[in-house]
Amino acid sequence: MHRRVQRVSATSTLLDEVEQAFRTLPARYLGAARGFDATYHVRLGDVGHCFEVRCTESVARVRKGTCRREPDVVIGTDARTWLRLRAGELSGLDAFRERTLHARGLVDLALAFEGMFRLPNGRDPIIRVHDVHLKGRRISTLTTGDGPDVLLVHGLGAAKTSFFDTAAALRQQGYRVHAIDLPGFGSSRGPATAPYSAPWFAETVLEWMDAQDLERVHVVGNSMGGRVALELGLRAPERVGGLVLLCPAVAFVKRGLHPLVRLLRPELGLLPHKIARPIVARQLFSMFADPDALDPSVADIAVDEFQNTYTSATARIAFLRAARNLSLDAPFGPGGFYPRLAGLAPEALFVWGTHDPLIPAGFARHVRQWLPGARQVVLEGCGHVPQIERPEETTALIVEHLRRVDRRRTAPDLRLRADGPRTR
Question: Cβ atoms within 10 A of the Cβ of 31, count?
Answer without folding.
Answer: 13
